[in-house]
Amino acid sequence: MKRIISLLVPAxxxxxxxxxxxDDYGAAIEAFKRAEQTQPFxxxxxxxxxxxxxxxxxxxxxGAHGKGQVYKGGNVTGxxxxxxxxxxxxxxxxxxxxxxxxxxxxxxxxxxxxNFEFGAQATAVAITASAQAGAGSTGTSAGASGGSSxxxxxxxxxxxxxxxxxxxxxxxxxxxxxxxxxxxxxPIK
Length: 189
Known about the structure:
Elements: H1 2-16, H2 25-34, H3 39-44, E1 47-72, E2 75-102, H4 105-111, E3 116-118, E4 122-123, E5 125-126, E6 134-135, E7 162-178, E8 181-187
């Protein structure tokens, strides 16, 4: 078990170097602004969290990690990080961008409360056919809905105040696993 985890950490690090630097928030935001599926959300969202690179890998036991920023009214309000552990049939690795739009102050406050988690029962909208990321709700948190878009525009609306989109950067992963995304938030002081 320790050996598998020790192999996963470097693999996730390599994935995060794909396409552009992990802290290139401007490039990630522009990629989502160019996508037809997310343009309407930029026009009316209360705020959003952007993760320029989330690296994900696994072989039986998997994990994902990424760092991001949270925006409200066009201004950065804090830093966030996402961690995920998955157990199940899976092999490979991938890197992707993720954005979470907040419909209103309630959704924004839920996410920035410091105790937010997505479960595995709903999915995020994949801007490219090869991207996948699980999202859902557990406890008092919110979830996201949608499906994969394989070359056509995917429809998505807010679900419990949030809408989640991913954009594949590279890699290949086959999985049938269960796991949730957990988020931390540190406000800018």
